[in-house]
Design goal:
Length: 132
């Protein structure tokens, strides 16, 4: 890793950023979706595997909805939305979906998407660390 031509700084920084996003996603799943539970409920390996896939699927569905919500606003990216608040809102609203008449589902989804402004986080101040 000490060869700058083989491992450019920009590539390493980009990989680190991607790694950080993955860790951040795991933290969101553990803290907000699993409520910091230390163990999974399943006892058999196949069921543990199934439970993990369910968590990952639910997380990705929530993130997909958050992306749709964010892109409906001008100059808003999905990472600018608070995961915990948005996930709680979407979970509550989507649990009501089975009671909505089929013809009213598009309107219901549009009403969900219209709430996007409530979940956009305030801009972070720019961090600056002088080189030492």
């Amino acid at each position: 890793m000490s060869e700058p031509l083989r491992y450019p700084k920009a590539d390493i920084a980009d990989l680190y950023r991607h790694r950080w996003e993955i860790e951040h996603g795991f933290r969101e799943m553990k803290q907000h979706m699993l409520n910091n539970e230390l163990t999974l409920r399943s006892k058999k390996p196949a069921l543990v595997n199934q439970e993990l896939w369910r968590i990952v699927l639910a997380y990705n569905l929530l993130r997909f909805m958050m992306a749709q919500m964010a892109y409906s606003l001008k100059d808003t990216e999905p990472y600018q939305m608070g995961f915990k608040q948005t996930a709680l809102y979407l979970s509550a609203q989507l649990s009501l979906l089975s009671a909505v008449a089929l013809g009213k589902i598009p309107k219901f989804i549009n009403e969900i998407l219209a709430m996007v402004g409530s979940f956009v986080l305030p801009s972070r101040r720019q961090r600056h660390y002088p080189e030492q």
